[in-house]
Design brief:
alpha/beta; binds S-adenosylmethionine
Length: about 280
């Protein structure tokens, strides 16, 4: 945590995410065209586990270019999305305007959110590929928890940190990265998960793995009560190159045998109501 390069790493990551916005907005992976035609971009998992959002205030942390945020709004939530990518927030705002979806978007680093937002929400939501960009998981949990109204809840659906120890380029499960490492890991950037052939000027990004124990303990220390923690043997993107796509947005381990490791988890935690 005392790494003096953290701000430099985050700048590089931000540049990459800014470049990803144009790439992702034209990718079939994200399906912006269908979204504009009215398709809801949320997965059955979070739709089922978050439940009815009608009339509720919802804060979406690290919302990318806002399709999931606006999907919650289409379901009746009063949404606020936040992300540090200027390009992402600009596209989210223009989509909201074009599609006439009431919403608000904030552009800032997650760790600066308390300087931009002074209110609490019924639901604080975040999903898929968010924690790996955050150097300080305890501070993330404090900020997320501070945005939940008493009686409200925090929800996350995310890649399982144990799956991150395996070589993401190998055609079999091969241990490569430490589970317990606190240092930034630098990965070569080759296109994006949504378009492997896309041109990106950033050559290496910087990521941090946080153990499941650290994630949960941070949320508990931040005053939340865990309602459930679910682990899943499938995922929503091609996390490992040998996973098989079911044609409906889910990647599974190949074959009939029992899946060897968890690929995703979801968690819901409430902030106790004030008595
Ligand atoms: C994988 S994407 C979000 C996933 C989202 N579910 C989606 O697929 O649209 C990760 C997001 O985190 C954002 N991000 C990374 N580091 C951040 C930080 N320090 N503060 C705020 N946003 C950050 C990136 O800009 C990116 O939009």
């Amino acid at each position: 945590m005392s790494d003096p390069n953290i701000n430099k790493y985050k700048q590089v990551n931000k540049q990459m995410w800014n470049e990803y916005v144009a790439i992702h907005s034209r990718s079939t992976f994200y399906g912006l065209k269908e979204f504009k035609e009215g398709v809801n971009k949320l997965n059955p998992l979070e739709l089922g586990e978050v439940g009815d959002v009608k009339g509720k205030s919802l804060l979406h942390l690290q919302c990318h270019f806002g399709m999931d945020t606006l999907s919650w709004a289409r379901l009746g939530a009063n949404v606020t999305g936040m992300d540090f990518s200027e390009e992402g927030i600009a596209l989210a705002c223009s989509l909201a305007e074009e599609l006439k979806i009431p919403s608000r978007f904030i552009c800032c680093d997650l760790y600066d959110l308390p300087n931009h937002l002074n209110e609490t929400f019924d639901i604080v939501f975040t999903s898929y590929g968010v924690l790996t960009w955050l150097p300080d998981i305890a501070r993330w949990a404090q900020i997320a928890a501070s945005c939940v109204k008493p009686g409200g809840f925090f929800y996350i659906a995310e890649m399982h940190p144990f799956a991150a120890v395996f070589d993401y380029q190998a055609m079999e499960l091969r241990y490569r990265y430490p589970y317990f490492d606190k240092e930034a890991l630098s990965f070569e950037v080759e296109g994006s998960y949504a378009d492997h052939n896309a041109e990106v000027t950033v050559k290496n990004d910087f990521e941090w793995n946080h153990t499941l124990g650290e994630i949960i303990t941070s949320l508990i220390n931040a005053g939340l009560q865990i309602e459930f923690l679910h682990e899943f043997p499938f995922t929503v993107f091609e996390q490992l190159p040998f996973l098989e796509h079911d044609g409906k947005g889910i990647w599974n381990f190949p074959g009939e045998g029992k899946p060897p490791i968890p690929l995703m988890f979801s968690l819901r935690a409430i902030k106790p109501a004030i008595k």
